[in-house]
Amino acid sequence: MIFANLIGLLAVSHRTKDSEPSAPAWERLAWRELRVEIQRQVAEDGVDFEGSTAYHAFVLEMLAAGLLLSARAAAKRTALDQRAWLAKQLGAAGVSALQKMFVVLQALTPPSGLLPLVGDNDSGRLVYLETPKATPRDWRFLSCIGAALFEDPSLLPTGCQPGHRSAARRLTDGKPPDLGAGPERDAAFPVTGFYVMRGGGAYVLVSAGPIGTAGLGGHAHNDRLAFTLEIDGREFLVDPGVFVYTASVLERNAGRSVLTHNTLTVDGQEQNRWLESSPWWGCHEDTRCKCVAWDATPERTCFVGEHEGYVRLSPPVLHRRSLELKKISRQLSIKDEVIPRAASTIPPLTWSFVLHPDCDVQINRGGARIQRNGREIRFEASQGDWLHHETFFAPAYGVRENTNVLRLFHRPGVTEQSFLISW
Predict the structure, then answer these.
(1) Residues in Cβ contact with 392 at an 8 Å cutoff, skipping those fewer than 6 apart
(2) Which pLDDT does position 181 carry in this prediction?
(3) CA 421, CA 111: separation in Å to the nearest integer?
(4) In the chain, which end has fewer C-beta atoms inside a 10 angstrom radius, N or C?
(5) Which bin fits 358, alpha (ψ -120 to 50), beta or left (φ > 0)?
(6) What is the pLDDT of residue 341?
(7) Cα 298 from Cα 199, distance rounded (Å)
(8) How many helices (H) and strands (E) does the chain have?
(9) Interatomic CA distance for residues 324 and 314, integer angstroms
(10) Considering only CA atoms, which of 321, 122, 315 is closest in space to residue 208?
């Protein structure tokens, strides 16, 4: 990662400033390139350009920890002094981009505190600042750093504990951030394509954007129009994450496949084709996924998105998905439409819904009942029969847990399917 190299160069230049004549030049180079890369790699909506939730947090951790350690090396210890010093080093635009990244992290963090794994994840870290043995997907310590640096408690997600804010004390002097949380509201990041729906005890994260990494899709999965679902702080429908990278191309592609994400598959085909030049990295931008409607009110939040990943098939079809979170009645409705671009029979369709490993599932006529730790959701389908079988969940890189995936199959010719999830 370029950011890791630049933060490392800053650290070396500080450490060797009294013994290495080139250290000042190294430091100038690092700051110059950091200004360039922050503008290049942080989208206008504040999300890291790789389009991965885990890499967004990882990049933000590298920047926050590295920049604040540099500020302390320059004897800037209070939040006010650190912000002013960083503005001189990075420019106002660079500091603004850093603040936006913290806004995104707060919005993406669900009530459980466990960041959904949309896209790749290698569980990488620059330096461990939080409580030992913390769950790798729990980045609330990082939000506490942002809240302290920008003196803004609204950057705190739900459930921050004293152990989370201890990291902020190590980097910024003064009063630690309050343990209150920022607003839990719907949020849209349209450049990257992350849409967060909240209310009625639900947290829903929808993936509906480009493949990331400047169109190369290096860390993208075939998860366009997929979503994750958390109810009352418990994960029910999850993104499976990634088990390994180059250790196994089979496991690598299993983690990237549309069949292991909570979305629709047409004729057994991937949404985006893998790059021919690499068995592990990148994909073609076949989907050109986008949100076509977004409306959030206190009573309901509606999302409509579509992608063109199956337009390349014969017959060519467009996938459109609508989600409506009904906050008062505590329901999530899903409608999938397969729209033909030419007069022909629609190929077979498969829907997949990956469950958290702690979920128990019972299939019944027309749907399923899913239980976890005293909570239950009811999953109904307008037509079709359910099956479930074993798949995997990778909460951290190199860690694989067994779980279940719900599947619904349709014979050729079906063009529309509706689901209702209630709790």
Answers:
(1) 240, 243, 254, 260, 400, 401, 402, 403
(2) 66
(3) 19
(4) N
(5) alpha
(6) 84
(7) 8
(8) 7, 17
(9) 31
(10) 321
Q: With beta carbons less than 8 A apart as the criterion, state whether 348 and 313 touch.
A: no
Task: Cis check for the bond before 315: say yes or no (omega within 30 of 0).
Answer: yes
**CB 417 within 8 Å of CB 349:** yes
**Token pair recorded at residue 61:** 């951790």
- What is the spatial distance between Cα 332 and Cα 330, in angstroms, rounded to a whole number? 7
At position 334, the amino acid (one-letter code) is: I
Give the torsion sign (CA, 281, 282, 283, 287). Answer: positive
Angle made by CA atoms 182, 188, 191, in degrees to the nearest 5: 130
Return d(Cα 94, Cα 55) in angstroms, integer: 19
- Residue 133 amino acid letter: K
pLDDT tens digits for range 393-419: 999 999 999 999 999 999 888 999 999
Residue-level pLDDT at 184: 77
For residue range 151-201, what is the model confidence (pLDDT) as tens digits?
A: 999 999 998 888 888 889 889 987 666 666 666 799 999 999 999 999 999
Q: Report the amino acid identity of residue 203.
A: Y
Taking a C-beta distance cutoff of 8 angstroms, is the pair 206, 194 a contact?
yes
> Which residues does 128 contact at the CB level (< 8 Å), separation at least 6?
none
Q: Which of the two residues, 420 and 280, has the higher pLDDT score?
A: 420
Q: Give the separation between CA 119 and CA 193, rounded to whole angstroms.
A: 12
> pLDDT tens digit string along 369-399?
999 999 999 999 999 889 999 999 999 999 9
Mean pLDDT for the stretch of residues 253-260: 96
Helix (H) / strand (E) containing 66: helix 53-73
Q: Retrieve residue 117's tokens.
A: 């794994």
Q: Which residue has the tokens 């702080």?
A: 233
Contact at 8 Å (CB) between 330 and 299?
Answer: no
